[in-house]
Amino acid sequence: METQASSSPTTILSSINPDSIDTIPILATILAKLQPLQPSSAPSPAPNVISTRDLPGATDELKHKLQKARMQVKELPDIERSVKNQEEEIARLEERIGRQKEMLGRLRQVGEEAMRVRERAMEI
User: CA 107 to CA 43: how far, in whole Å?
Assistant: First the structure.
């Protein structure tokens, strides 16, 4: 028995937007502030600089954002479907599109022929 996917278009949850799952800016900020561990006799680093020992605390926001993104991805429709299943559906849909294009081509031919007949009838 063939399982059919929902015939309605898939909509992404409104809670998911690119900003809610984009972690690159946070990571870039952390890396820009990261300073190698310096000997204890060295002067203390600038306020916007973090040392490697402070890295775990500095990455909390990144960890939370990744955790939230993981939960949001799990809520996406059809996320449990296998790649093979999705490829089979794509093949079926492509076949359907092909049949629809063929039908539209035939309808166009019928319409063009009807137009020619009508034009000939008006000439008489």
Answer: 81
Biggest distance spanned by C-alpha atoms of the chain: 106
CA dist 102 and 68 (Å) reads 46
Q: Domains of the chain: which residue ranges?
A: 16-80, 81-124
Question: 27 near 63, Cβ under 8 Å?
Answer: no
Residue 51 sits at φ, ψ, to 5 deg, of -95, 170
**51 three-state secondary structure:** strand
Residue 1 confidence (pLDDT): 40
Residue 3's pLDDT is: 46
Buried b or exposed e, range 72-94, using 16+ CB within 10 angstroms:
beeeeeeeeeeeeeeeebeeeee
Distance CA 20, CA 66 (A): 9
Residue 53's φ and ψ, nearest 5 degrees, are -70, -25
Cα gap 120→97, rounded to integer Å: 34
Supply the pTM of this predicted model. Answer: 0.48
Q: What's the CA angle centered on 49, arms 40 and 19, to 5 degrees?
A: 150
